[in-house]
Design a protein that fits this description.
Low-confidence stretches: 1-5
Binding site for cob(II)alamin: 77, 152, 176, 187, 234, 259-260
Mean pLDDT: 91
GO molecular function: 4 iron, 4 sulfur cluster binding; cobalamin binding; epoxyqueuosine reductase activity; metal ion binding
Enzyme class: oxidoreductase
GO cellular component, one term: cytoplasm
Pfam families: Fer4_16 (PF13484), HEAT_2 (PF13646), QueG_DUF1730 (PF08331)
Structural class: alpha+beta
Radius of gyration: 24 Å
Distance between the termini: 92 Å
Strand order of the largest sheet: 1-2-7-4
Largest sheet: 4 strands, antiparallel
Length: 399
C-alpha cells in the first residue's frame, strides 16, 4: 500500500494587529461571549505594585481564612508576564449570567433554600473553558499565534485585568461592575504572544453609593473595596471546611450556597439584560428548593442532583452542614424539626453538629435532652450538644 503524502500545514493568515483584534472580537461574540476586551499583559510597575499591595493587606489581615492558596504565587497573580514571559496581550472575555428574577425574593421564603444565581445552572467553569478553548483554536489555526487559556482557577487577578480591558470596575463589594451588565459577569482570559491595540480602562462609577456595603448580613466589608472573607457568606458556605462560627450561623438565614445580596442590590443592575447562555440558566430543581427535601440527600442523591453544577465541588457533607444551619433559621418549625432530627443520625460529624445547633433553635429543652448525646463519640459534636443544652436552658430562663 502506498503511503499518502503528508497534508501540508496551512499557512497562517496575514493580519495587522488591528485586523487580528477585530477578528478575535467577532469570533468571540459569535461563540457566545457577551463582552470582549484587550489589555496589555505588561500593565506597568505601578499597577503591579498596587495589586501586590492590596493583596498583601488582605493576606496580612488574615481575611483569606482557609484559602491559603491565595498567598501562593503572588507575583504571578499581579503580573501575567511573570506567569508566562511571552504574554503581550490579555484578551479578557465575559459571559453575562444575569438572573430572570430578583434573587433576594427567596430570602423571604425561609422554608426554601437560597442558592447563589451562579450555581443554579451548569458549572460556569466548564462553559467558560469550552468557549475559551474553541476561541483559542480559532486563533491558532488561523493566525498561528501562541496563547494560553485561563478561567478562575489560574493565579491571575481577573477583575483588575477586566477593568484594564474596559469591561467595568471593581465596586465597593470588590466584584466587577459593568455599566452594561451590572454585577453579573463571569470572566476568563486568553494570554496572547502578540501585542494588540488595547481598550481604554474603565473608571470607577460607584460614587457615594453604599448599597452593597449596607446590605451585607455579616458585615463582611470593613471598608469600601475591602472584603473580610472570613465573614462573607459565600466564603463560609463554599470554601470554609469545618463548622461555621456560632455567632455567624443565624446570619446565614436560608443561604446554603453562596450569597448574592451585595451583587443583587447594585443600582447598575437596572441596565442588565437576562443571560442568553441557556446552559447557565437556573435549573428548576435548584431554584428555591425545599430545605426539608435537601436534608434527605444521601451521597448518591447529592451527586445525581448536582451533577454538572458548581455545587458538586463542595461535597455532600459541607452542603448538608449548610442545609442544617438554614433549617435552624427557619420559622417553619413543623417541617424543619423532623428534617433536623433525621440529620442527627447522619454519618458525617459535620452534618450532625449542624443538626444539633438547629435542634437547639427549634425544639424545647425536653426534646433536646432526650436526644442522642449519650452515644455521640465525636468530640466536636459532643461540644455542640453541650452548647445546645445551654442555649435552650438560657432561652427558657429568659436569658
Amino acid at each position: 500500500m502506498s503511503r499518502q503524502p503528508p497534508v501540508p500545514k496551512r499557512k497562517p493568515k496575514p493580519a495587522t494587529p488591528a485586523e487580528l483584534r477585530n477578528a478575535i472580537r467577532d469570533e468571540a461574540l459569535r461563540l457566545g461571549f457577551d463582552a470582549v476586551g484587550f489589555a496589555p499583559a505588561n500593565a506597568g510597575a505601578e499597577a503591579r505594585d498596587q495589586r501586590l499591595l492590596r493583596l498583601g493587606e488582605f493576606l496580612n489581615a488574615g481575611w483569606q481564612g482557609d484559602m491559603g492558596w491565595l498567598g501562593e504565587r503572588t507575583e504571578q497573580r499581579a503580573d501575567p508576564q511573570t506567569l508566562w514571559q511571552e504574554a503581550r496581550t490579555v484578551v479578557s472575555l465575559a459571559i453575562n449570567y444575569a438572573p430572570p428574577t430578583d434573587p433576594l425574593e427567596v430570602l423571604r421564603q425561609d422554608e426554601r433554600a437560597a442558592i447563589s444565581v451562579y450555581a443554579q445552572g451548569r458549572d460556569y467553569h466548564d462553559v467558560m473553558k469550552s468557549k475559551l478553548k474553541t476561541l483559542g483554536r480559532f486563533i491558532w489555526d488561523t493566525y498561528r499565534h501562541d496563547l494560553k487559556v485561563f478561567v478562575d482557577t489560574a493565579p491571575l487577578m481577573e477583575k483588575p485585568m477586566a477593568q484594564m480591558a474596559g469591561h467595568g470596575w471593581q465596586g465597593k463589594h470588590t466584584n466587577l461592575v459593568s455599566r452594561q451588565f451590572g454585577s453579573w459577569l463571569f470572566l476568563g482570559e486568553i494570554l496572547l504572544s502578540v501585542e494588540l491595540p488595547a481598550d481604554s480602562p474603565e473608571s470607577d462609577h460607584c460614587g457615594q453609593c453604599r448599597a452593597c456595603l449596607d446590605i451585607c448580613p455579616t458585615k463582611a466589608f470593613p471598608a469600601p473595596y475591602r472584603l473580610e472573607a472570613r465573614r462573607c457568606i459565600s466564603y463560609l458556605t463554599i470554601e470554609h471546611e469545618g463548622p461555621i462560627d456560632r455567632e455567624l450561623r443565624p446570619l446565614l438565614g436560608n443561604r446554603i450556597y453562596g450569597c448574592d445580596d451585595c451583587l443583587a442590590v447594585c443600582p447598575w443592575n437596572k441596565f442588565a439584560q437576562e443571560a442568553r447562555e441557556t446552559s447557565l440558566m437556573p435549573r428548576p430543581a435548584l431554584n428555591a428548593p425545599l430545605l426539608a427535601e435537601l436534608a434527605t440527600l444521601d451521597e448518591e442523591g447529592f451527586r445525581k442532583r448536582f451533577a454538572g453544577t458548581a455545587i458538586k465541588r463542595i461535597g455532600r457533607d459541607r452542603f448538608l452542614r449548610n442545609v442544617a444551619y438554614a433549617l435552624g433559621n427557619s420559622s417553619s418549625r413543623e417541617t424543619a424539626l423532623p428534617a433536623v432530627e433525621r440529620l442527627l443520625d447522619d454519618p458525617s460529624p459535620l452534618v450532625r453538629g449542624g443538626a444539633v445547633w438547629a435542634l437547639s433553635r427549634l425544639a424545647p429543652r425536653q426534646i433536646v435532652q432526650r436526644q442522642r448525646t449519650a452515644r455521640e463519640d465525636d468530640p466536636e459534636v459532643r461540644n455542640e450538644w453541650r452548647e445546645a443544652l445551654q442555649t435552650v436552658r438560657g432561652r427558657e430562663n429568659g436569658r
